[in-house]
Amino acid sequence: MNIVINSSSISKHSPFEQSNFVSDYIFKIVTSHPEHSFFLIRNHFADAFLTTSNCSIIATTPKQGNLLSWKIWYALKLPAILKKYKADVFINLDSICSLKTSIPQCLLLPDISFVQHLSLFKKNIPPSFNKAAMIITFSEFAKNTICKEYYKTQAEKVEVIYTAANEKFLPVDWEEKEKTKEKYTDGKEYFLFTGEIDNENNLVNILKAFSFFKKRQKSNMQLIIASKKVIKNNAFTESLKTYKYRNEVKIITAFKTEELVSITAAAYAFVYAVKQAGFYTPVLEAMQSGVPVITSNAVVMTEICGAAALFADPAIFENIADKMMLLFKDENKRNELITLGKQQAAQFTMASTNTLFWQNIVKCADIPT
Predict the structure, then answer these.
(1) 153 and 129 Cβ atoms separated by less than 8 Å
(2) Both 203 and 117 in a single domain?
(3) What's the domain range around 97?
(4) Quick one: CA dihedral 239, 241, 242, 245, positive or negative?
(5) Longest C-alpha distance within the chain, in Å?
(6) In this predicted model, what pLDDT tens digit does every residue of 193-202 receive, in sequence order?
(7) Bridge-partner residues for 269, per DSSP?
(8) Please, which of 67, 103, 131, 268 could form a disulfide with 189 given CB 3.0 to 4.6 Å?
(9) How far does CA 325 lie from the centroid of its chain?
(10) What is the pTM of this model?
(11) Same domain? 106 vs 185
(12) How many angstroms separate the CA atoms of 62 and 72, rounded?
């Protein structure tokens, strides 16, 4: 089987939850099936794929923002590429189908907010969803959004595959936690947020919640923001300049996965009260690391976390602070969430995700168009 994959929309500037999806899942599919041929439309992960004998780098996509070039690419160039490489199936992370080919197309939608905010092709999304042989997304919430609220897509063509925490995220012993705290917070306990520093992730309200917590509890608790992407001149960085507790907020931007593993496992609690809840792997990684979780009350988070997290309204900073104080004051509740979190995260495994991913690729290739 010949499989063409386009993940060029996931660049080195993309949120690392999306980048991790490409590196953790698509690369695994390629390396696990040497009996099939994969053709990758170039992205910043291309060098890694060159190490596999069954994968070739075949093309590039136009620059972001050039609408005419993209229309030409999808209408003419992509169909020619699929024909040239005798593709049995085309897998695309761009949320768009070519309407000019009969090759079965599988759209991967890791995060529904990506589609909702797509600046190009907004008018083309409904016909693309109708054209797709299959759409794979990562929660029932996303499926319902696609099928009912926005695009009225046939439910039978939308498959839900739950992603999992990276297997490197595990609990660590007391001594390892102390080393990490000494390195990053001078030995003090800390709340942790992992994600992009932008206006979508509700960091201003998390700052306000932390301030409220500090005033009420009078503790030396710190806040760590771990991010590989900082949007310039956003509300959070502006607020931090005059923030009363700015010396107790640590921003870490240059780190490897192994460092994030240690930072996560040593956290007192993980605070992920984001406005747009799309990717949920950071929450599962915290749970798998034995760290209690405070997250937003968005439908997708309640779906994924069940009873294993505390839920807060991201729009009300006092609500977030209440959950932070609850964990700080109630050690029994904190320990209960650690236990439940480990059990919840164990229900999502990379092995089962990859198996389902591959089964659906094969299924898509067999769907007549």
Answers:
(1) yes
(2) no
(3) 2-164+350-365
(4) positive
(5) 66
(6) 998 887 667 8
(7) 191
(8) 268
(9) 27
(10) 0.89
(11) no
(12) 9
